[in-house]
Design brief:
Elements lengths: L22 H17 L5 E6 L4 E6 L6 H16 L3 H9 L19 E6 L2 E9 L3 H13 L4
Helix pairs in contact: 1-4
């Protein structure tokens, strides 16, 4: 596997977009995320998008609430479009004050569970998970990413 990191570069500059995540890598991430969700008996929707925000893989488990389908894709596209986790938006809103401005950004899903897929310091895609509590969604997304960590 190639080097994967969630750490921003030392220069504090936004990560650049890289080539789209490969189908093989997306499948590896999806299998690990599915395994985590299934092990906890969590009915979830899991979406993986590439560096352009286009859907590469999607899975909806039986009995997943229907709204989670759109939310999972929204979390993944939010992360890739804005080059940060969706938790950052959730925290901005929770902080109040100027952070509430996030609610005016088009297409933002401000719920934890959308995480970038970073390879060799470049954004190649993102995973979005929905169906349970946001912290549980994030746990499943992290398990997916752990499958490609070196």
């Amino acid at each position: 596997m190639t080097a994967m990191s969630q750490t921003p570069p030392a220069s504090n500059q936004p990560l650049p977009y890289g080539p789209p995540v490969s189908l093989a890598m997306a499948k590896t991430i999806m299998v690990a995320a599915e395994r985590e969700a299934d092990a906890n008996n969590w009915p979830m929707a899991i979406a993986i998008v590439d560096s352009t925000g286009h859907l590469v893989l999607f899975r909806r488990a039986d009995h997943t609430q229907l709204g989670s389908m759109e939310v999972s894709v929204g979390k993944a596209t939010t992360a890739v479009r804005f080059k940060r986790t969706t938790k950052a938006f959730e925290e901005a809103i929770a902080g109040g004050g100027a952070g509430v401005r996030v609610m005016t950004l088009p297409g933002v899903v401000a719920l934890e569970g959308g995480v970038l897929i970073v390879v060799n310091g470049q954004i190649v895609g993102a995973i979005g998970v929905s169906g349970m509590l946001s912290t549980q969604d994030a746990q499943v997304a992290a398990a997916g990413l752990a499958a490609i960590a070196v």
